[in-house]
Amino acid sequence: MSTELRRITEGNYGVARLTPAPEHPGTFLGMPKFSKAVKGELKLAVQRKNMRNAMTTIRNKRATRVAESPDWEDVREAAYEIKNRVGRHLDYYLEQAEKNLTAHGVQVHWARDAAEANRIVGDIAKSKGVDEVVKIKSITTQETDLNEYLESQNIAAWETDLAELIVQLGHDRPSHIVVPAIHRNRAEVREIFLREMKNYGRPAPEDVSSNPPDLADAARLHLREKFLRAKVAVSGANFILADTGSMVIVESEGNGRMCLTLPDTLISLVGIEKILPTYDDLEIFLKLLPRSATGERMNPYNSVWSGVTPHDGPQEQHVIFMDNGRTNVLADPIGRQVLRCIRCASCINVCPVYERAGGHAYGSVYPGPIGISLTPQLRGLDDPVDRGMPYACSLCNACSEVCPVKISFVDVIIHLRNQVAQAEKIDHGHGDVEVLGEQGIMKAAQWVLGDYKHWETTMYATRAAGRVLGNKPLGPIPVPVAERWLKYRDVQPIPTQTFRDWWKQNRVEDER
């Protein structure tokens, strides 16, 4: 056992675990559903300010880069067609990728679920006699809770991406799939570095400032010793090219390149949907991904490698293709389109719900539109957390407009809401009060919208209510559901004039 891991496990530094503290559970499993979790997140004023500032910056950068690309829609269409072809012939491309990876000296493994994937990673690491691994930022390994599993096997998993390092040292959870520490500001990061770095390796300089370059330097010095002694690295992959057996990782910091070149053994955990048919297809996605994710024309580090090269880089490489619910998603004609996702987070960056709620409210490593449309399909609808996700959406459709692979999120979300309604009807039966209440509301809406005379009658009733209230904003309503709904929303006063009345007063019908 390494000196650092011994200090962690034995508590010599007064810190027992790398995983989050009890007030910040290490995994998203067991959290309350979105409608309950979001109440606490909305009270975090500093976090909401951090999120608003960061989201605005990212959106503006993306818009600038897209505007300078006159063929943007053509490239989106090409990516859409390529990923659809992958979905139609996934079995063929996976077998082709396995054949070509093996030909290049890569050992290919197959994992049905998260538990099997974690076990394979753990077994490989233990066979090398190591008690620590370095990691490239990987949302797939977060999906499986790999860090927590390795810790249970007395193997420390060190995150080397700057944002992931901030999250890990802060005993926190990621809140974004591209910028995991987006909910933190620079002052908070400085406090975390000063408080925690000394517990897990080289401490941050006592006079470190909150300027980003100084914080980056502190992280670089802290991580360098881990890079230099690491024998095993763990990564994901942005893409695997079936025709050449090549793997692709794009990043912005260089930590990935360190993990891909220095350790003796590289283990890559990859979702089965990350396949591209040919090397030529990569051109399309290297134009879409950086512009959509971080507003860059190109990622500073683009690593493409084809297996083992003697005396150059890791001499033992493993690729684990993981299902973990993806074949179930592929079987759904509507839901399968989310497998086109390239994890750019452009949908998250424009989502008004995410910007206000933050990523921790979703109960999934995938927040925002991709989270609420993918996670319930991967995990199923048995848990209240997963049933609540499709309702964390205003159906504004901004996510579909910016998605580089043209996922129609609204169609998937409405499809999932229907599945949730059917599941709850089966579970609770027609005698359940909540189900009966929802059915009553839907029947009332059907009556109102089913006939224009019914609509007119309803409008006259609301006009009368507006006049009685005197054009004042809606306050507390002594009905539990309405009271909870209004507590977190700003609702305009009920109008004292209907649109039909306004039209009659201000427009003359053409009598021709």
| Strand-residue proportion | 5-15%
> What's the end-to-end separation, in Å?
90 Å
User: What would CATH call the class of the largest domain?
Assistant: Alpha Beta
> CATH superfamily of the largest domain, called what?
NagB/RpiA/CoA transferase-like
Shape label: globular
Helix content: 40-55%
Structural class: alpha/beta
CATH architecture of the largest domain: 3-Layer(aba) Sandwich
CATH topology of the largest domain: Rossmann fold
The overall pLDDT, averaged over residues, is 88
Low-confidence stretches: 1-26
Strand order of the largest sheet: 1-10-7-4-2-3
SS summary, helix count: 24
Radius of gyration: 26 Å
Overall strand count: 10
